[in-house]
Amino acid sequence: MDINKNIILIFGPTASGKSALALKLAKENNGVIFNADSMQIYQELPILSSQPTIEEQKIIPHFFYGFLNYQQDFSVAKWLEFIVPKIKEELQKDKKCFVVGGTGLYFSSLYYGINKMPEVSKNLKQEMRDLYDNIGHEKFIDFLTDLGDHNIANLDAQRLIRRAEILKETGKDLTFWQHQPKEIFFEQDQMQIIKLMPEREKLYQKCNQRFQYVVENGAIDEVKNLAKFNPNGLIIKTLGYQEINCYLNNRLTKDEVIEIVSKKIRNYAKRQVTWFRNQF
What we know:
By secondary structure, this protein is of the alpha/beta class.
């Protein structure tokens, strides 16, 4: 494969072979590898989130895998704060920078730029979450409407709370901020796109094999150790976490876990394929 740019974006659905390809190309092209997967940033679930192994990370420098603990919040904006300066640093060393993962918003923000959103205080975030929990979905919509935000049809709880945070913090709704000029990090002609889109049946087979493998190779112990802390936030959205936790509490059998999660992973891969095709 011809690598003709300095920043290479390798993306595609889960289990499509992105990490293996990145490792091969980085070895051949004096490269380093950057994580663009929102679940692989956490240190507690390396097997369940299918992070590159310690051995693989010794072969080629890997950045931003397993570098946060489950208690730390993260976002696209924070990912950019970490990755952009590090890419620039590695480019200064004449390295090829391979950005690899399956989180679409990470790639689109790096490639197209991002609307700079205002910071929201932790106290206000908690206040809006508590308000939603106390008054419920419909009354929270009324609350937002009374504040002057009318662009809220068919939004889920997370998006409604986010809009409330921004509006309360700044006095302007999220739509206003989304229409501000984007911050651009790299010129598009610096970047090469490699999009992995396996044939559907082959992809689904790999999804099934992937989860079967992680279950048999340590994912259950990872969940057991993390569940002791009763975590919340982004990390518990890792595919398979909730179901393995149910298995540990005798609410599901191992076979049921594998069946349910394999189906979820296939559906997730299908959504990823659609998103990537539409975005790039």
